[in-house]
Design a protein that fits this description.
The protein is an alpha/beta fold. Helices cover 45% and strands 16% of the residues. The chain has an 8-stranded mixed beta sheet, sandwiched between helices.
Length: 319
């Protein structure tokens, strides 16, 4: 074999090794992306989510007892646009002409929302508490982080109007992922019956929240893991989570909105409150709860929490 042939063979070998290494890197990245998809998007027990504590105060115990009483609750259901059976609890408040739809948080369920449900009920509202897709009794094999759930929320709004009549005034309320859900819903074409929105500790966008958690939990940078996981999410769940941006939806919002956030939130950082608050030009208020961790604002200061919500709603409901 002459030197030219040897050189050509060596180049081919190097080229093949290079291609092999690139393919291994791509496979490795998609393996990592698939791992993080399973970690964050597939419903199930999550070791990074603290388990909710049992009702401790007499008021919390009373709320839980009222909430669990089968005489007070009705089961509602509907079929989502992508053919999932979605379940909800409904609490009829006499002949009230106002209804709140409550959205729970990530890996939670409708059964977690007793305190919030009773608060709104005592304010004179009918209360509807759905299980988000992939949570509780609702079907679904992935978490939409508020993006697909915004479409489900539109269907629940329509169901309220079908069941209770076209004169109902509707308030959307959500905590954590539920807060993101109602913010993402705010940018959709909603009936005039939706008169106000309240969000508690929702994130500005799924991309930012996952990047933040990647750093907090694994001390890893967003690139290239987040873009690869985004692609895996499109393949497995049918949507790019980069689309799920509450700030872009809020830019289209016209409803009055109250933003609530705990100052010690280590799961959705307080800095995101400024982002979502500045994203909308609609009438708005913000309420920072001193010392409150994630989704703990109501339990830290229940009296002021209810006072602020009542004052906000009194401006826009029943007017």
């Amino acid at each position: 074999m002459n030197s030219r042939s040897k050189g050509s063979s060596r180049k081919k070998l190097i080229w093949r090794i290079g291609i092999g290494l690139v393919l291994l890197m791509i496979l490795g990245l998609f393996g990592i992306g698939n791992y993080f998809y399973e970690y964050a998007f597939v419903p199930g027990d999550k070791d990074f989510i603290s388990q909710g504590s049992a009702a401790s105060t007499e008021k919390e115990q009373a709320a839980e007892q009222w909430y669990q009483d089968s005489e007070n609750r009705q089961a509602w259901s509907l079929t989502s646009e992508d053919n999932l059976n979605l379940q909800a609890l409904f609490y009829q408040n006499n002949a009230s002409e106002k209804t709140v739809i409550i959205a729970h948080g990530y890996m939670g369920s409708k059964e977690d929302m007793a305190d919030y449900a009773q608060m709104f009920y005592q304010l004179g509202y009918n209360v509807l508490v759905p299980d988000a897709r992939g949570h509780g009794e609702s079907q679904g094999d992935y978490v939409g982080f508020g993006w697909d759930e915004r479409k489900d929320m539109q269907q629940w709004i329509a169901e309220v109007l079908t069941q209770l009549g076209s004169t109902q005034e509707i308030v959307l309320f959500g905590v954590s992922m539920g807060g993101a859900t109602v913010m993402m819903t705010s940018g959709e074409d909603l009936p005039d019956n939706v008169v106000a929105i309240i969000e508690d500790c929702g994130y500005a966008s799924v991309r930012e929240e996952l990047s933040y958690q990647l750093k907090q939990l694994f001390n890893l940078p967003a690139f290239p893991i987040i873009p690869v996981t985004n692609l895996v999410t499109k393949v497995r769940a049918g949507y790019f989570f980069s689309q799920a941006d509450a700030t872009k939806q809020l830019a289209k919002n016209t409803r009055p909105i109250l933003f609530i956030h705990g100052t010690e939130d280590s799961f959705v950082p307080l800095s995101m409150l400024a982002q979502v608050y500045s994203a909308t030009s609609a009438p708005k208020e913000k309420y920072e709860v001193a010392g409150a961790e994630h989704a703990a604002s109501f339990s830290v200061d229940p009296e002021m929490y209810q006072t602020r919500i009542t004052a906000f709603l009194n401006q826009y409901v029943g007017q």
